[in-house]
Automatic annotation (TrEMBL):
<feature type="transmembrane region" description="Helical">
    <location>
        <begin position="68"/>
        <end position="88"/>
    </location>
</feature>
<dbReference type="InterPro" id="IPR003416">
    <property type="entry name" value="MgtC/SapB/SrpB/YhiD_fam"/>
</dbReference>
<keyword id="KW-1133">Transmembrane helix</keyword>
<keyword id="KW-0472">Membrane</keyword>
<dbReference type="Pfam" id="PF02308">
    <property type="entry name" value="MgtC"/>
</dbReference>
<feature type="transmembrane region" description="Helical">
    <location>
        <begin position="100"/>
        <end position="130"/>
    </location>
</feature>
<dbReference type="Pfam" id="PF21770">
    <property type="entry name" value="MgtC_SapB_C"/>
</dbReference>
<feature type="domain" description="MgtC/SapB/SrpB/YhiD N-terminal">
    <location>
        <begin position="19"/>
        <end position="140"/>
    </location>
</feature>
<keyword id="KW-0812">Transmembrane</keyword>
<keyword id="KW-1003">Cell membrane</keyword>
<comment type="function">
    <text>Virulence factor required for growth in low Mg(2+) medium and for intramacrophage survival. May be involved in regulating membrane potential by activating Na(+)/K(+)-ATPase.</text>
</comment>
<feature type="domain" description="MgtC-like C-terminal">
    <location>
        <begin position="157"/>
        <end position="232"/>
    </location>
</feature>
<comment type="similarity">
    <text>Belongs to the MgtC/SapB family.</text>
</comment>
<feature type="transmembrane region" description="Helical">
    <location>
        <begin position="12"/>
        <end position="30"/>
    </location>
</feature>
<keyword id="KW-0997">Cell inner membrane</keyword>
<feature type="transmembrane region" description="Helical">
    <location>
        <begin position="42"/>
        <end position="62"/>
    </location>
</feature>
<dbReference type="InterPro" id="IPR049177">
    <property type="entry name" value="MgtC_SapB_SrpB_YhiD_N"/>
</dbReference>
Length: 238
């Protein structure tokens, strides 16, 4: 049998060490993601890590370092498709970017282990964990700092609460008012607010505004027949 002829205990032991390292380090990264209830948790990160490890390790044994380099290039691009699966768009909001980036790093950890760079794989794991845990307090501090709306890139939404029988009319006029103020609308979503009212939520194309101009446009919307309230909000973009 070819397996018996080609089996080398030293190569097998080397692969075992690489896979154990990839499994252990992927578990550390995945446990943090699982604890935070992210889309890609413990098992996903472990599988990404050991999968990347095995591909690189196999290339190392079959074609040497040059072959491993080529496989690493494919792992780097291929993991992007898996990462795209955990990114979700909800209206103007995008979720899952950090989880996708963590999967990418898990693949890098596995690739290092497969290339017999165990120490580098461990070091990268520490940096990934630090990025996902130690930077959170800094993010919260930065989010609480006052921002200049005209200078910060954000997602801006204008909302109007209107009587249901006037909703279609106000929807059309809402787009016109904002367009006249040079704030074109990307989309307008309608949500029921009880039996007699609807909320129209318009997401602006612009990522920066002049507060006085937007306030003037909202004031115009408040004067439309059937409108009971209007306002706007912003969310800082990722």
């Amino acid at each position: 049998m070819q397996f018996i002829d080609t089996f080398r205990s030293a190569d097998f032991l080397d692969t075992l060490v690489s896979l154990v390292a990839a499994f252990a380090l992927g578990t550390l990264i995945g446990a943090e993601r699982q604890w935070r209830q992210r889309t890609a948790g413990l098992r996903t990160n472990v599988l990404v890590s050991i999968g990347a490890c095995q591909f690189v390790d196999m290339a190392m044994h079959l074609a040497g370092p040059d072959g491993a380099v080529r496989v690493v290039a494919y792992v780097v691009s291929g993991i992007g498709f898996l990462g795209a699966g955990v990114i979700m768009k909800e209206g103007a909001n995008i979720r899952g970017l950090n989880t996708a980036a963590t999967l990418w790093c898990s693949a890098a950890v596995g690739a290092c282990a497969g290339a017999d760079l165990i120490a580098q794989a461990g070091l990268l794991t520490l940096f990934v964990l630090a990025g996902n845990t130690m930077l959170r307090p800094l993010v919260r501090v930065l989010e609480r700092l006052p921002h200049d709306i005209s200078a910060v890139e954000s997602t801006f939404e204008v909302f109007v609460v209107v009587r249901t029988e006037r909703a279609s009319e106000v929807r059309a006029k809402m787009a016109g008012v904002l367009q006249a103020a040079k704030y074109p609308v990307g989309e307008i979503e309608a949500t029921e607010r009880g039996e007699e009212h609807e909320e129209l939520n318009a997401t602006l194309v612009a990522t920066s505004v002049r507060v006085d101009e937007l306030n003037a446009a909202v004031a115009s919307l408040r004067q439309l027949p059937g409108v009971t309230s209007a306002g706007w909000m912003s969310r800082v973009a990722d």
